[in-house]
Specification:
Blueprint (H helix, E strand, L loop, with lengths): L9 H28 L5 H31 L13 H28 L4 H25 L12 H27 L6 H34 L5 H22 L1 H5 L18 H9 L3 H14 L9
Helix pairs in contact: 1-2, 1-7, 2-3, 2-7, 3-4, 3-5, 3-7, 4-5, 5-6, 6-7
């Protein structure tokens, strides 16, 4: 049998594992910062952060097991390339997709809040995320039926649909957030500056994850003989998890809020709706409305969660 290019196969997978490990380290640090910075946050968000970290820990362990199997246990054994893929390498696909789907669902709920419960746009994002997860499960099931690791390109269609749906989900989410955030402008310079920051963050997050997904899709379709696509895919789910944690951890700095439990006297853009803005523009009781908004913010028991 021809000798495979180890640089383009296991070398590429090893580099991807290294980058993925760095991203996992950043994720672990972000989890630590989250629990230290937001001890009074909702239990749901705490559970979600813990669940994501456990999923990514399992994902990283599966990748490490697969690489150990190929480059240590079977070092110099070329037969391994024409043997069925190791179970951990296959299962990692679904685990990574599941972690990504959770993050996408959370961003869909963000669209739900910012759009004032637009069920159609939120439903579209959730449908795209669920469809990608479904194709990832199909890929995993079909991969267990492969008789050789070299046959992985046979699943190109299923993989392309899964990765393509991931890119579509990111783009639709970013576009929806930009559109609905624009409607939250209040005319206050501080609030509008916050809206601009959140809009820029939404775009940058969608671009980063989409770039890796597109790169994975292109390399899988055009260079199936090497494992560059595999190394890129190892990183994708870590990027989703890190983007979610970064969004949670930047709530204080973006909104100018202090520690948990502090009251805020400046109304935030999340508490100002169009009805209030119209009244401020056309009626003389703007000061009274502003005071009512201040009280509503100060009494809000879940202030941080409203960032979502």
């Amino acid at each position: 049998m021809p000798v495979p290019d180890l640089n383009g196969t296991m070398g590429a997978a090893f580099v991807g594992f290294g980058v993925s490990s760095v991203c996992f380290g950043v994720l672990s640090l972000q989890c630590y910062i989250y629990f230290r910075r937001y001890p009074m946050d909702r239990t749901f968000y705490k559970f979600l952060v813990a669940a994501l970290w456990l999923l990514e820990t399992g994902d990283e362990a599966l990748v490490a097991h697969a690489l150990y199997h190929y480059v240590v246990t079977n070092w110099g054994n070329l037969i391994v390339f024409v043997s069925p893929p190791v179970w951990s390498l296959i299962l990692q696909v679904t685990l990574g997709a599941f972690a990504g789907a959770i993050v996408k669902a959370c961003f869909a709920m963000r669209v739900w809040r910012f759009s004032k419960h637009n069920i159609w746009m939120t439903g579209l994002i959730l449908l795209l995320a669920a469809s990608q997860m479904g194709f990832a499960v199909v890929y995993t099931i079909q991969a267990y039926k492969l008789t050789s690791l070299a046959e992985a390109p046979q699943l190109k269609i299923v993989a392309s649909f899964s990765l393509g749906l991931g890119v579509a989900t990111d783009m639709v989410t970013a576009a929806a957030l930009c559109y609905f955030l624009r409607n939250l402008r209040t005319g206050y310079s501080k609030d509008d500056s916050l809206v601009n920051s959140l809009t820029l963050y939404a775009v940058n997050t969608g671009i980063l994850t989409s770039m890796f997904s597109v790169a994975t899709l292109i390399t899988y379709d055009l260079m199936p003989q090497n494992f560059i696509y595999m190394g890129l895919y190892f990183v994708v789910s870590k990027l989703y998890a890190n983007s979610f944690l970064a969004t949670l951890n930047t709530r204080k700095s973006l909104r100018g809020r202090g520690t948990d439990g502090e009251h805020v006297t400046m109304p935030t853009f999340l508490m100002v709706d169009k009805f209030s803005r119209t009244k401020v523009d056309h009626e003389t009781s703007g000061l009274e409305i502003g005071i009512q908004q201040e009280v509503s913010v100060a009494r809000d028991p879940h202030g941080y969660a409203l960032a979502w």
